[in-house]
Amino acid sequence: MKDFKDIQDDQIRIVGQNVERKPLSRGAWVAIIALVMIAISAAALLIAQQREAQTAELSAPEPALFEPIEKVEVVEQKWLGSNVAEEREGFTEIRDTIINDIPLRIFIPHNAEMSLHIGRMDKEDKEVVYVAQAADIRADNGGIVGAFVLKGEPRAWGLSKKGFCASINGVVTVGVAENSHLFEQATEEGGYFFRQYPLVSDGQLVENEPKGKSIRRAICDRQGEIFMIESGTAESFHDFAQALVDLGVDQAVYLVGSSAYGWAVDAEGNVHEFGEDNYYTGRHRMPKNTSYIVWRKQQQEFKM
Amino acid sequence: MKKQLIISTSIDLVRIAPEKIVYIASDGNYSTLMQTDNEVRMLSYQLGQIEKMISSQLGSEGNIFIRIGKSLIINRSYIYYINIARQKLTLSDVTSFNHSVTASKEALKQLKELLEKEVK
């Protein structure tokens, strides 16, 4: 009997196929051996005949079994961010653009690594180059909405939102799926994982329930380049997602929008804040499970 | 009568026909079962335990299910689309439900090869 835990992520198996088969009878074996011998003799005869025919055919061009119907269009990789030397200290490149009359600010981290954080961020942390709120918080009990893994530790479970973002061993994956093995992988390999509204899946707009307008934010994958984006005006989910599609984004997942606070540090060390820093004061108490995506400068090898 | 899968705990019991299950996904120490009517059911068993139940209760009829990696059991009847590069697997009856899940590239490659072999 197979151990049911004995499977890796890169393996599959058909369930219920461990029924033992009866061994073949002696008569059946004799019949099989006879058939095999007949087949071998026939094959040898056929090969000898074909060799003669092939000599004559060699001069003629070999016909293709099937021709490609259309040529595959090679998509040239054009990243939005600049080329930055690997030894340079991490920072966030900030670019502004307008798509469909929507002003967009694009935050492209360079030489930085993404992780997640729960609780208030330290604004004095000089290693941070970008911060924005990640998962939503439940209004009823203050818990995190959707599955959430913090440095390998699962902090929340759930299927409520289909968009996901994972950072495992320095690789950030943005995608849309009801179930993702990256949740398990993040748990096993000390990674990070959270869920949010899906906005773009395989270059196609994903519709979402909330219909209001607000400042929108997202984390995106465009031709393998990961960046964050913020609308300069209050937009619906639909219009914001359409702008991302028109920008050429392949996958995008929402980040907490509106007054949610965050900041980016540019190449000159200037801090660009967004949202309301003072929102969680007075009668607004900051939920203890408030989570952030945090891009920190990559540790250079020559650094102590 | 066709065999039904019974998943029972000390306080409740789920009895469901195998063809009504789209997939079962691991969710930490629990599992979530996606039904063909788009209902999601949380099960207080790990995925390996559920695989064992399928195997012991359904026997060879359980082979409509395929275990994919550590976190997924799918109903092979509903495999609609596989994209290895995007690590995407879509399970659909092309009428009432359409669910996308992810799996490793190697696992999806094996699944694709399995289905290709079956039609030869």
Provide a descriptive summary of the structure in words.
The complex is a heterodimer of chains A (304) and B (120). Chain A is of the alpha+beta class. Chain A has two domains: 28-60; 91-297, no CATH class. Helix content of chain A is 17%, strand content 32%. Chain A contains three helices and 18 strands. Chain A has a seven-stranded antiparallel beta sheet with strand order 2-3-14-13-15-11-12, with helices on one face. A five-stranded antiparallel beta sheet of chain A has the order 4-18-5-16-17, with no helix packed on it. In chain A, strands 7-6-10-8-9 form a five-stranded antiparallel beta sheet, covered by helices on one side. The longest helix of chain A is centred in the N-terminal third of the chain and has 32 residues, at 26-57. Chain A starts with 11 loop residues before the first strand and ends in a 7-residue tail after the last strand. The model of chain A is unreliable at 59-72 (pLDDT under 50). Chain B has 120 residues and is α+β, with helices and mostly antiparallel strands. Chain B has a single domain (5-119), classed as Beta Barrel (OB fold (Dihydrolipoamide Acetyltransferase, E2P)), CATH 2.40.50. Chain B is 22% helix and 40% strand. In chain B, strands 5-4-3-7-6 form a five-stranded antiparallel beta sheet, sandwiched between helices. In chain B, strand 1 (5-8) and strand 2 (13-16) form a beta hairpin. In chain B, 36% of the residues are buried. The chains are: A alpha+beta (304), B alpha+beta (120). At the A-B interface, strand 1 and helix 2 of A face strand 3, strand 4, helix 1, strand 6 and strand 10 of B. Strand 1 (12-14) of chain A pairs antiparallel with strand 6 of chain B, so a sheet runs across the interface.
